Structures are given as structure tokens and as C-alpha cells.
Automatic annotation (TrEMBL):
Cofactors, names only: pyridoxal 5'-phosphate
Span of domain Aminotransferase class I/classII large: 27-391
Keyword list, A-Z: Aminotransferase, Coiled coil, Pyridoxal phosphate, Transferase
Family of this protein: Belongs to the class-I pyridoxal-phosphate-dependent aminotransferase family.
Assembly and oligomerization: Homodimer.
Coiled coil residues, start to end: 260-323
Keyword Coiled coil in record: yes
Xref: Pfam families: Aminotran_1_2
Gene3D superfamilies: Aspartate Aminotransferase, domain 1 (3.90.1150.10), Type I PLP-dependent aspartate aminotransferase-like (Major domain) (3.40.640.10)
Full protein name: Aromatic-amino-acid aminotransferase
GO molecular function terms listed in the Swiss-Prot or TrEMBL record: transaminase activity
Length: 396
């Protein structure tokens, strides 16, 4: 029965983990998968996570199931973090939050919900976007379409984006990245968010904002600007969130799906349907990561310490961005790569071609995604110059 099953190439991002591990070059540099790294190349467990885990170890009394929507201490705290403490929509009980297995699980849950209840609508994704976005929505049976995001010179092409969104059929779904756009690192300004909101309202579009990097761009509140603007201005939208990066909980699969409805009654209706979609998909979410986040966000002391750890991660990446640009100076390429300092979050869309990325890997053991996306957090004080020199070699 299995004789017709064909082998396929591994995932473009996750496949790099193994390829990197197998490389014996002592100078190898991993700029592939989006995980934070410190200057020694490690992805440590945050100190606040360790403290929360110690507390949980003492307190946890059961391993029984948590409900379809997960741990309410977690969902309530995370909703406040995303929409803000004084959100009118939150106070009006218009937001349903469901704990999910990571941001990917949130996206799949959103996709299943949309397919079941708003069938026939396409979803519009930025071109480029995280490669798993189209994969998830296509797997759920939703038609995927694209709007432009960067131009040929590798800069945000806001005019083209706006013009394309103005042509999206009424009622279609538009996926936006809240901050730290993956893969490009080019984010929308506050004014640009306002302009997109006007188009969303005029065209009657349903926004789905993917918020996987809160706190990695400019700050927890700053990064939430677009999300909060939309939540307070619209009747309906979806938000998917992740604690993989900001709490460093990657493998604990900790995320959420938030659905904003026009009133509490409709929110409760939607909520029951989201629970069904979760039940049919993975039943109930894993508990540990969400329990850790709940422990941190419900303690003022741990929250303050965690914000400090988050600020350190963000600061290191932003410093690396300017140091990386400076490392191109001896090669006469500082201006060409100046945009790296303007991008935000873990990723930089370098503008390198597939062939150049391949040469970096084959000749220098530098690993980045084939699209030219580099994880800036994978750089270190030691590797900056090596990587800049290697890039200078392949672009000349
Ligand atoms: C990435 O884009 O590298 C991360 O979000 C990890 C993943 O699952 O792809």
C-alpha cells in the first residue's frame, strides 16, 4: 500500500537544524530556524521560567486534562498582555481566548474554524510570508492568495500592499504580521497600520493577525500597536499568539487563538465552535508551558524579572543588527546592507539569492533559509566578521 508514497524534501526551515548538526566545520554558523541564541550560541531556559517551574513542581497536584480552552489563568493573563489592560473590547467580554499547542496550533485552529464557518473565503498572505502559513491554510482546505510586501530592491512596498488589499473581495480574510515580520523583518509604521485599518473597514475584510514575536521588536506594548488599534476599532477579527520566543518556551508548544466578536453573545457562540474545532484536532492543549506563563504573569515580581530578560534578548538582537551593518564596512557594503539595522525581530531578509545562500552553506558552513532569511540572533561577536566576509565573497 505504501509503495506509491514518494519521499519529499524536508521542511525548508526545520530541515536546517539537522543539516547544521551534521556539519563538522568548527566555524559553522546557524542563522536558520527562528530561535533566540545568546553570544555563546545557546538557547537557554529563562531564569524566570526556571523559577516558575520550581513553584509548579511544588504545587502541581494533578495531571488530569485541562478543558478545551485551556488554563484560564493563562488565557486571561495572555489576553491582557496582547490587547492591553484597559481594552474596551476585553471589558465588554467580546474576546474569546483559547490556549493552543503553540502559534502553529493556533493558526491551524483558526483555519479549521474559518473553513467550517466562513467557507468559500480566501485568505490573503503577504508575499513573502512564513512558509508554514500557506501550508497550514491549504491543509485546512482554504484558498490561499497573496498581496505584495517587498519590492525588487528588498524594501517594504507599502503602496503595492495597500493597492492589492483594496482589490481583495469583500469578506475575504487577510493575514497580517503584528510585528517582527517573518521572514522580512520589515514592520508597518503606526500610520501604515491606520491606513490598512481603513481598507479593512471599507472592504469588509476579516483580519487575522499573527502575533508570534511580542516583545522582540520595540517592546511589549509598542509591538502590540496594530493589534490593539484593530481590536478597538473592529467588530470581528482573529489573533494568533505564541510564547515560544518571548518566554523561550519553544518545545512546550504554548500559544493562543483569540477571536473578537461584535458582542458577548456572539463571542460565546463562537467560543463553543472553537472548542469543537480543538476537540476534533488535538482535544485539549498541553499544560506545562501555559502553566509556566500563568505563574509568571500572575506574579508581579516574576513579571518584572521576565520583562528584564525579554528586554535583554531584544537589546542583544538590535545591537547585533547595527554591529552586523558595521561589519560590512571594510567590504564597502555598509550602505547596501544598511536596511538590516531598520528591520525588527529575529529575522532579516538579506536579499541574497538561493544560489548565494547555497554558496554560503557549501563554502562557509553558514546556514540560512533558502529565501535569504537570516536569523540575526544566530550571530555572535565572534562570527559577525566571518559572516560579513563570507557574504561579501558571494555577492561580488
Ligand atoms: C521560524 O520561522 O524559524 C520559526 O517560527 C520556527 C518554525 O516553526 O518555523
Amino acid at each position: 500500500m505504501f509503495e506509491r508514497i514518494e519521499r519529499v524534501p524536508g521542511d525548508a526551515i526545520l530541515g536546517l537544524i539537522e543539516a547544521y548538526q551534521q556539519d563538522s566545520n568548527p566555524n559553522k554558523v546557524d542563522l536558520g530556524v527562528g530561535v533566540y541564541r545568546d553570544d555563546k550560541g545557546r538557547t537557554p531556559v529563562l531564569a524566570t521560567v526556571k523559577k516558575a517551574e520550581e513553584q509548579l513542581y511544588q504545587q502541581e497536584a494533578t495531571k488530569s486534562y485541562i478543558g478545551s480552552h485551556g488554563d484560564t489563568r493563562y488565557t486571561q493573563a495572555v489576553t491582557r498582555m496582547v490587547v492591553g489592560e484597559d481594552s474596551a473590547a476585553l471589558n465588554d467580554q467580546r474576546i474569546s481566548t483559547t490556549q493552543t499547542p503553540g502559534g502553529t496550533g493556533a493558526l491551524r485552529l483558526a483555519a479549521d474554524f474559518l473553513k467550517s464557518h466562513l467557507s468559500g473565503r480566501a485568505i490573503w498572505l503577504s508575499d513573502p510570508t512564513w512558509p508554514n502559513h500557506p501550508a497550514i491554510f491549504e491543509a485546512a482546505g482554504i484558498e490561499v492568495k497573496r498581496y505584495p510586501y517587498v519590492n525588487a530592491d528588498n524594501r517594504l512596498d507599502f503602496d503595492a500592499m495597500l493597492a492589492a488589499l483594496r482589490e481583495v473581495p469583500e469578506g475575504d480574510i487577510v493575514l497580517l504580521h503584528a510585528c517582527c515580520h517573518n521572514p522580512t523583518g520589515f514592520d508597518l509604521s503606526e500610520d501604515q497600520w491606520r491606513e490598512i485599518l481603513e481598507v479593512v473597514k471599507t472592504r469588509g475584510l476579516l483580519p487575522l493577525i499573527d502575533f508570534a514575536y511580542q516583545g522582540f521588536g520595540d517592546g511589549l506594548d509598542q509591538d502590540a500597536f496594530g493589534v490593539r488599534l484593530f481590536v478597538e476599532a473592529l467588530d470581528e477579527m482573529l489573533i494568533t499568539t505564541s510564547c515560544s520566543k518571548n518566554f523561550g518556551l519553544y518545545r512546550e508548544r504554548t500559544g493562543s487563538l483569540m477571536v473578537l466578536a461584535a458582542n458577548e453573545e456572539q463571542m460565546q457562540n463562537v467560543r463553543t465552535q472553537v472548542a469543537i474545532a480543538a476537540r476534533e484536532n488535538y482535544s485539549t492543549p498541553p499544560s506545562h508551558g501555559a502553566a509556566v506563563v500563568a505563574e509568571i504573569l500572575n506574579s508581579q515580581t516574576l513579571t518584572e524579572q521576565w520583562k528584564q530578560e525579554l528586554a535583554e534578548m531584544r537589546g542583544r538582537i538590535n545591537d547585533l543588527r547595527s554591529d552586523f551593518v558595521a561589519a560590512f564596512r571594510p567590504h564597502g557594503l555598509e550602505e547596501r546592507f544598511a536596511f538590516i539595522a531598520e528591520q525588527r525581530g529575529m529575522f532579516s531578509y538579506t536579499g541574497l539569492t538561493q544560489a548565494q545562500v547555497k554558496r554560503l552553506r557549501d563554502e562557509f558552513s553558514i546556514y540560512m533559509v533558502g529565501s535569504g532569511r537570516a536569523n540575526i540572533a544566530g550571530l555572535s561577536g565572534d562570527s559577525l566578521e566571518y559572516v560579513a566576509r563570507a557574504i561579501a565573497t558571494v555577492v561580488k
